[in-house]
Design a protein that fits this description.
The structure holds 2 protein chains of 2 kinds.
Chain A lengths: L2 E5 L2 E5 L4 E8 L5 E7 L5 E7 L5 E3 L5 E5 L4 E6 L8 E8 L9 E2 L3 E6 L1
Parallel strand pairs in A: 2-11
Antiparallel strand pairs in A: 1-3, 3-8, 4-5, 4-9, 6-7, 7-8, 9-10, 9-11
Chain B lengths: L4 E3 L2 E4 L5 E6 L6 E8 L3 E9 L2 E5 L6 E5 L5 E5 L8 E8 L9 E2 L3 E5 L1
Parallel strand pairs in B: 2-11
Antiparallel strand pairs in B: 1-3, 3-8, 4-5, 4-9, 5-6, 7-8, 9-10, 9-11
Chain lengths: 115, 114
């Protein structure tokens, strides 16, 4: 079965510092991968997606992620953190077989940004 | 374009009652998925509907059910509520539910069981 592991349930960075949120997936074939962000009392907002077109994917709000098949990883990065980036981030995999409409999520990483 | 709309935003129920949650997808989206979010279990897939048919189901008891109408709006129902059903219930929509399509989420319904 496919699964997603996010390393670190809490990450704290200083404003202006690099943000690195880790995601590893388990799949026998390259899956479709997504990063979502959730702000308090809100739903999930799509940051970016990997659907095999390019290994480096750029998303909204300055975030990007690199798909590395050899490492089964899809880590999320942002060069310079802003206070507004404080939120919970979820990595998700969409099985690429007959499992339409289903996302499998990691446990989430809460990002704190210190002034 | 209006986003995914979920109603109500908050609900308080007691054990043994039943509840119905509503989701209106983005216009043109025909696939609607439901998820349960709790601090302990995280985000878990409940089921997915496309063209009024349930295509996919997660590992939840039969107390959790849903349906989809011809206009793609969806409802989920939970019967005989238990304390453990307290959660944020999220609805998401996409055009056809294909695996390479991102899902767009509503703000959720927060259900509290007393």
């Amino acid at each position: 079965a496919q699964s997603v592991t996010q390393l670190g349930s809490h990450v704290s960075v200083s404003e202006g510092a690099l943000v690195l949120l880790r995601c590893n997936y388990s799949s026998s074939v390259p899956p479709y991968l997504f990063w979502y962000v959730q702000y308090p009392n809100q739903g999930l907002q799509l940051l970016l997606k990997y659907t095999s077109a390019a290994t480096l994917v750029k998303g909204i709000n300055g975030f990007e992620a690199e798909f590395k098949k050899s490492e089964t990883s899809f880590h999320l990065t942002k060069p310079s953190a802003h206070m507004s980036d404080a939120a919970e981030y979820f990595c998700a995999v969409s099985p690429n077989y007959n499992q339409g409409g289903k996302l499998i999520f990691g446990q989430g990483t809460e990002l704190s940004v210190k002034p | 374009k209006a986003g995914v709309t979920q109603t109500p935003r908050y609900l308080i129920k007691t054990r043994g009652q039943q509840v119905t949650l509503s989701c209106s997808p983005i216009s043109g989206h025909r696939s609607v998925s439901w998820y349960q979010q709790t601090p302990g279990q995280g985000l878990q897939f409940l089921f997915e509907y496309f063209s009024e048919t349930q295509r996919n189901k997660g590992n939840f008891p039969g107390r959790f059910s849903g349906r989809q109408f011809s206009n793609s709006r969806s409802e989920m129902n939970v019967s005989t509520l238990e304390l453990g059903d307290s959660a944020l219930y999220l609805c998401a929509s996409s055009y056809t539910g294909d695996s390479n399509q991102p899902q767009h989420f509503g703000d959720g319904t927060r259900l509290s069981i007393l």
